Amino acid sequence: MPETAEDRTDRDEEPFRREIVSFTRRGGRLSERQQDAWDDVAERFVVDVPRGRTSTSVAEGFTLDPSELFGRSAPLVLEIGSGRGESLVHAARENPGTDFLGLEVYVPGVAQTLIGLRHAGVENVRLAVVDAVPALTRMLPEQCLEELRVWFPDPWHKTRHHKRRMVTDDFVPLVRRVLRPGGTWRLATDWQDYADQMLEVLGRAEGFTTSGDWAERFAGRPVTRFEAKGTAKGRTIRDLSATRMTA
Ligand SMILES: C[S@@+](CC[C@H](N)C(=O)[O-])C[C@H]1O[C@@H](n2cnc3c(N)ncnc32)[C@H](O)[C@@H]1O
Q: For binding substrate, which residues are annotated in this chain's numbering (predicted)?
């Protein structure tokens, strides 16, 4: 049987690195176009994050000031795992009065996003090559977000890998910390078993209200290549949402 990314994870993990993360660092080679976009606009759009021990960590004491980062004060939407940036660039183009921050640990994905940004001519996006966990724990200020979006997080479908899933009870306090009261947490997945887990997590999430059922497809979410692949395989796309309580 061919080796999968998840199998490789078990072998490739750096020996000193004990904490469980929701991603694998896949090949970091940029295509010529990606490198060109990176050289051209990364300085403008990619946040220079001081690191701790690893290349996706955040140095202790570093916090981001969104109004300084974007050069204005506007509602801020965060997308975790922005991938190739299809949703992020679409949203930024449709909503010029809102600022969008994408967190993505896959550097070629970030470079691909830069190609999209350049092409669309949008300015209201910033990207950070950073693990969402330290970003939500300490890099972002409390209650700075209008919305937090998690589109198609890695499903980690094998039971022994479920511990790597991002959307768990332990993740809830991190989201609660950064979302403003009244703000929205949106999710989508094509993996039914993960959708069921998300529904349970949201249903018991302290400080959030949710319908207890699937949400309507979010109108601001375009069909990404990732979603199209899931649909082609006959999977049902599930949207979910929860609102941060005001009191
Ligand atoms: C399955 S892909 C989906 C990408 C995109 N949202 C889409 O719909 O096309 C999940 C992405 O999340 C990123 N990711 C996983 N865990 C992450 C984390 N802790 N912080 C930031 N990005 C993460 C992965 O690198 C990957 O690009």
A: 158, 190, 224-227
